[in-house]
Known about the structure:
Layout: H1 3-11, H2 18-30, H3 39-53, E1 57-61, H4 67-74, E2 81-86, H5 89-102, E3 108-112, H6 115-121, E4 126-131, H7 138-145, E5 149-158, H8 168-179, E6 183-188, E7 194-199
Parallel strand pairs: 1-2, 1-4, 2-3, 4-5
Antiparallel strand pairs: 5-7, 6-7
Amino acid sequence: MDESTDEYATRFTTPPLDSLRRLGEETEATQDVPQMSVGALEGAFLRFLVAMKQPRLVLEIGVFTGWSSIEMARALPPGGRIIACDVNEETTAIARRYAAETGVADRIDYRVGNAFETIQALEEIFDLVFIDAWKPDYVDYYEAVLPKLAPGGIILADNTLSALAGNEGIATFNEHVLADERVECVLVPIRDGVTLIRRRP
């Protein structure tokens, strides 16, 4: 979608919390690629999905400065939690700080390190998985988490419209998921695209 469409959609979406607005400002001021943050529109979309799905356990691959995990954590049911994986200690520290300020730090278990190693060591079964990490690894992340997805669970993959801009890793991922008879999927054109993936009954 073009910028004017994104701006219009954001204008008619419930505004973010003040803490998230300031997180966005700090991300813009301190990070080389601040657009990696999901921002207000997609953050609200993720919060709505979690509020509807009511997952007990969420896995996030790719935290950056934390907007997505904070928004999802806000909508978790009582006792719900997120395991949030990222390789960058500096940006994860920002995420921890704003999660505490927003009052959801107790719902997010941040894991800093190689996400594949973290996933391999996890014995939990997840109701929802959000993938927003290194794009060439999307297929490998998908294959790693699919066996750990609960019946009726959902995988959300971010930035899936970037294939239109020549992102070969995402193009390969999109083709891979579409051809996978184990799942059904829908690519939602919000911001840079979010694909919702559900294992077939």
